[in-house]
């Protein structure tokens, strides 16, 4: 594996009980880029995303074969600590899910769990994370107010700040804008593009225009398979596979 690859799967298969949801997926996610996973409903996008930080471990019926590598290391190797994996590979969900605590406490939560106690250090982490998530200017005067009083878009940026606070290297995003209005969506899209300077971002999206706007690489999935993976421009303008072309031209959804 070369250093420009952050995440990689090799011949990854996943079953939920007897139903196979991923088939022979081999993909390399390049470092410090936005990679979009697109494809029709039920094709396995979220399942693949959840493999990258072992979130599927939480589903009793899920079983995998094949390999998943993070920076060259097998994330299922015996010595691997799943909590460290999820710290390095953070996740942001479809529906913003801040804790019912203050804005400050949401961001300080992860660092506190990792043993950060000093107030000045926590203050600094909270400010830096909120700035990186493009939320600081909107909340700096009300850090101790409830996070749930924020708008949906602000809550989603807070969730991004919360994941940044533990210094991840990857941020996985599962349809992060689907519950948001167009203005809030545009802000998150701008943020995602900026985050990719420092982090590797993998985003699942139903929205092909969104994939085209923000990603450098795109994987098109269909019925549990990765049909095609390439530069986004190539996928949208000159795909190799007919199935990809049919999907991106809207011949099926
Ligand atoms: N926890 C689960 N238990 C059993 N089957 C599941 C589970 N999660 C997903 N599946 C099934 O696995 C397949 C892939 O689902 P997945 O959610 O990964 O697809 P998706 O492409 O993300 O879909 P969508 O765009 O609708 O979110 C589907 O057939 C789905 O019903």
UniProtKB/TrEMBL annotation:
Keywords: ATP-binding, Cell membrane, Membrane, Nucleotide-binding, Phosphate transport, Translocase, Transport. One of its GO terms (cellular component) is plasma membrane. The keyword Nucleotide-binding applies. InterPro entries: AAA+_ATPase, ABC_transporter-like_ATP-bd, ABC_transporter-like_CS, P-loop_NTPase, PstB-like. One of its GO terms (biological process) is phosphate ion transmembrane transport. The keyword Repeat does not apply. Its main location: membrane. It comes from the Archaea. It is a peripheral membrane protein. GO terms for molecular function: ATP binding; ATP hydrolysis activity; phosphate transmembrane transporter activity. Gene3D superfamilies: P-loop containing nucleotide triphosphate hydrolases. It is found in: Cell inner membrane. Residues 7-248 form the ABC transporter domain. This is Phosphate ABC transporter ATP-binding protein PstB. The gene is pstB.
């Amino acid at each position: 594996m070369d250093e420009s690859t952050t995440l990689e799967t090799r011949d990854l298969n996943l079953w939920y009980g007897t139903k196979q949801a991923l088939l022979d997926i081999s993909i390399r996610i390049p470092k410090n880029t936005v990679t979009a996973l697109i494809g029709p409903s039920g094709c396995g996008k979220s399942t693949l995303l959840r493999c990258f930080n072992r979130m599927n471990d939480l589903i009793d019926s899920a079983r995998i074969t094949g390999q998943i590598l993070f920076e060259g290391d097998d994330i299922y190797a015996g010595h691997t600590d799943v909590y460290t994996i999820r710290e390095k590979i953070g996740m942001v969900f479809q529906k913003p899910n801040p804790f019912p605590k203050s804005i400050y406490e949401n961001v300080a939560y992860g660092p506190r769990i990792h043993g950060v106690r000093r107030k000045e250090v926590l203050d600094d982490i909270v400010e830096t994370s909120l700035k990186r998530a493009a939320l600081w200017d909107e909340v700096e005067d009300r850090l101790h107010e409830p996070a749930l009083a924020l708008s949906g878009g602000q809550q989603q940026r807070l969730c991004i700040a919360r994941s940044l606070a533990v210094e991840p290297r990857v941020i996985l995003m599962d349809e992060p804008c689907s519950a948001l209005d167009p203005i809030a969506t545009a802000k998150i899209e701008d943020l995602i593009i900026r985050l990719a300077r420092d982090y590797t971002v993998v985003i699942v999206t139903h929205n092909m225009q969104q994939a085209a706007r923000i990603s450098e690489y795109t994987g098109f999935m269909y019925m549990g398979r990765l049909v095609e993976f390439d530069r986004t421009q190539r996928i949208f303008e000159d795909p190799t596979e007919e199935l990809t072309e049919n999907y991106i031209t809207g011949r099926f959804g």
